[in-house]
Amino acid sequence: MERIVNYLKTALETGLEYIKKRRWYFISAAVVILLLPAFFRDPALPVETSTVKRGIYEQIIEEEGITQVKENFTLYSPVNGILRRIERHAGDPVKKGDVVALIDWDYARKVTAPITGTILRIHRESAGPVAMGSPLMDIGDTSQLEIIAEVLTQEAVAVRPGNAVTIEGWGGTPVAGTVRTVEPAAFKKISSLGVEEQRVRVIVDFTPPEGMGEGFRVYLRIIAFQKPDSVLVPSAAIFRDGEDWVLFRVDGGKARRTPVIVEHRSGTVVSVKEGVKEGDVVILYPGELIRDGVRVD
């Protein structure tokens, strides 16, 4: 019995000595075993993300427009005669009743300004024969401007009188305006790309800033609809999957396919009723490699 105990004791001491001498081999083997899954795991896909926010949803229609005076008066020659040279120039102020042109007929016929305003343009300046009905000049009040925008019919259906408008791109700071009229009749227009379009004239009232005149090109942002306290998701994150709207959330470093219910859509942002909440991280422009459960970075 004693021999057996001594044998076991000797074997145990020998084994411990063996393990002690080769402990780094065992540690290395354990580390390799632990790291093996990481080597065979699919790498995380790089993605672009954005955070879901809560705020005011605005459906904005963007369109170019042209300023014009609200009341433009074109003065015509009242008779056949000889026009004396017009000494006034575009930009000159005039008062109602001022003589702005003289036409020699059987006597000198006076052409007077119908309003107090500014000469917008001169159609005929030089002296010489003039026929009755020939345009001589345009007069208008440049303190009373409006903007005419030609809006696509599929967008114009959402525009209503009273909608707020931001006027930009005229060379100064943005100006506030209001939709006054949406004309009831559309017209056909060919775009710069040769596409036939149906458009509607939208007229915007505003207080013109100093330096703005008639015929200025401006850029309009018409707020057709507003909804406060909305869950806002970038439209680049949402896509169609059959009849459903879907996006991918990032949860624990993995993409999670998430159906959502869309309330309203505009060009860059979507108002979501259900599916995500404020603070969720969503994937923008998800490609074919993005699937439910895929690791992302």
Automatic annotation (TrEMBL):
YknX-like C-terminal permuted SH3-like domain boundaries: 232-296
GO CC terms of this entry: cell envelope
Membrane-spanning parts: 24-40
Localization per record: Cell envelope
Presence of keyword Transcription regulation: no
InterPro entries: Single_hybrid_motif, UPF0194_transport, YknX-like_C
Keywords annotated in UniProt: Coiled coil, Membrane, Transmembrane, Transmembrane helix
Pfam entry (one): YknX_C
Protein name: Secretion protein HlyD family protein
